Amino acid sequence: MRVAFLGLGVMGFPMAGHLRSRGGHEVTVFNRTTAKAEAWSKQYGGEAKRTPREAAKGAEIVFMCVGNDDDVRSIVYGDEGALAGTGKGAILVDHTTASAELARELFAKAKERGVEFIDAPVSGGQAGAENGQLTVMCGGEEAPFARAKPVIDSYAKSCLLLGPAGAGQLTKMVNQICIAGLVQGLAEGMNFGMKAGLDMEKVIAVISKGAAQSWQMENRAKTMCQGKFDFGFAVDWMRKDLGFCLAEAKKNGARLPVTALVDQFYAHVQARGGRRWDTSSLMNLLMQD
Question: How far, in Å, CA of 21 to CA of 56, rounded?
Answer without folding.
Answer: 20
